Amino acid sequence: MEEKEIFLSPEGLRKLQEELDYLKNVKRKEVAQRLKEARALGDLSENSEYDDARNEQAFVEGRIAQLEKTLRLARVIPQDEAGAQGDGVVRLGSRVRLKDLEYGDVEEYTIVSSVEANPAERKISTESPVGKAILGQKAGAVVTVEAPAGPIRYQILEVLP
């Protein structure tokens, strides 16, 4: 199976590199110390502290492997290639103001890759239902997003770099 490129903003790349550095140089050592201390407690067959430390070690090593793969496949999209082109087209890196046509609510989102998506920070993925619907559209366009509760219609009010 061919691995596909993962598009990242420069900020997204930096965050992933920082997380990888932290996991490799800080968290790994902390978990190794916890394992050492748990082993010193004696019988490992009934040592919940040891089991917990082993589970954390597995999680950390899995996340390190995931980050290394993501970074290996990453293609950084410079700002001038992303949303900053000023042509009003929604693309990776664009900030978009959307109006819910049923309720009149206006929301602003940044369009990012699935790796960078974080709804709490108002960053939605190009692979999300809303992201897919607005990608490639221009200000003024009306799009319909299929949601579990039924279709939602949005108007793109503004596309900002």
Q: Quick one: biggest sheet?
A: 5 strands, mixed
Please report the first level of CATH classification, the CATH class of the largest domain: Alpha Beta
Quote the beta fraction.
15-25%
**Helical coverage, percent range:** 25-40%
Can you name the CATH architecture of the largest domain?
Roll
SSE run: EHHEEEEHEE
Strand line-up across the major sheet: 5-4-3-7-6
Instruction: Using the CA coordinates, give the radius of gyration.
Output: 21 Å
CATH topology of the largest domain: Chitinase A, domain 3
Structural class: alpha/beta
Mean pLDDT reading? 88
Short description:
The chain has 161 residues and is of the alpha/beta class. Helices cover 39% and strands 24% of the residues. The protein has three helices and seven strands.
Q: What this model shows, in words?
A:
- Helix content is 39%, strand content 24%.
- It is of the alpha/beta class.
- The protein folds into two domains: 6-76, Orthogonal Bundle (Helix Hairpins), CATH 1.10.287.180; 83-160, Chitinase A, domain 3 (Roll).
- Strands 5-4-3-7-6 form a five-stranded mixed β-sheet.
- Strand 3 and strand 4 (106-112) form a beta hairpin.
- The mean pLDDT is 88.
